[in-house]
Amino acid sequence: PTLTFIEHSGTTHEVHGEVGQSVMQAATFAMLPGIQGDCGGACSCATCHAYVDEAWVERFPPAEGTEVDMLDNVTERRANSRLSCQLVIAEGMDGLLIRLPASQY
Ligand code: FES
């Protein structure tokens, strides 16, 4: 599926993601600014913080456990904040819209 990422600056990127890959992987393979993924997806760095568009929030299982704890540490947490390494791309997610925060720190 093709995912759309909108940077904090408003710059939009269309990125191809593979089913089974995480949203963080798709973004970092495309070398998007505004997302880091320092821990490689182990849910231990919170530098993959992103906002899932409201229309898509329910397409993912809710955050739980470590992700919830880690989200307490992100800058500018919102109701739709997620760690994008925990969001697995599935069939039918063409058009998934993710907004990136101003900073990961
Ligand atoms: Fe480290 Fe997501 S990549 S928490």
Secondary structure blueprint with pairings:
Blueprint: E1 2-6, E2 12-16, H1 23-29, E3 49-52, H2 66-71, E4 81-83, E5 97-99
Parallel strand pairs: 1-5
Antiparallel strand pairs: 1-2, 3-4, 3-5
The structure holds FE2/S2 (inorganic) cluster.
Characteristic terms for this protein:
105 residues, alpha+beta, Ubiquitin-like (UB roll), binds FE2/S2 (inorganic) cluster, electron transfer activity
Verbal overview:
The chain has a 5-stranded mixed beta sheet with strand order 2-1-5-3-4. It has helices at residues 23-29, 66-71, and strands at residues 2-6, 12-16, 49-52, 81-83, 97-99. With 105 residues, it is α+β, with helices and mostly antiparallel strands. The longest helix has 7 residues, at 23-29. The protein has a single domain (2-99), classed as Beta-grasp domain (Ubiquitin-like (UB roll), Roll). It binds FE2/S2 (inorganic) cluster (FES).
> What ligand species are in this complex?
FE2/S2 (inorganic) cluster
Low-confidence residue ranges: none
Number of helical runs? Answer: 2
H/E order of the elements? EEHEHEE
Distance between the termini: 29 Å
Which sheet architecture does the biggest sheet show? 5 strands, mixed
State the share of residues found in helices, binned by percent: 10-25%
Number of discrete domains: 1
Walk across the major sheet and give the strand order.
2-1-5-3-4
Cofactor: [2Fe-2S] cluster
GO molecular function: 2 iron, 2 sulfur cluster binding; electron transfer activity; metal ion binding
Pfam family, one: Fer2
Family: Belongs to the adrenodoxin/putidaredoxin family.
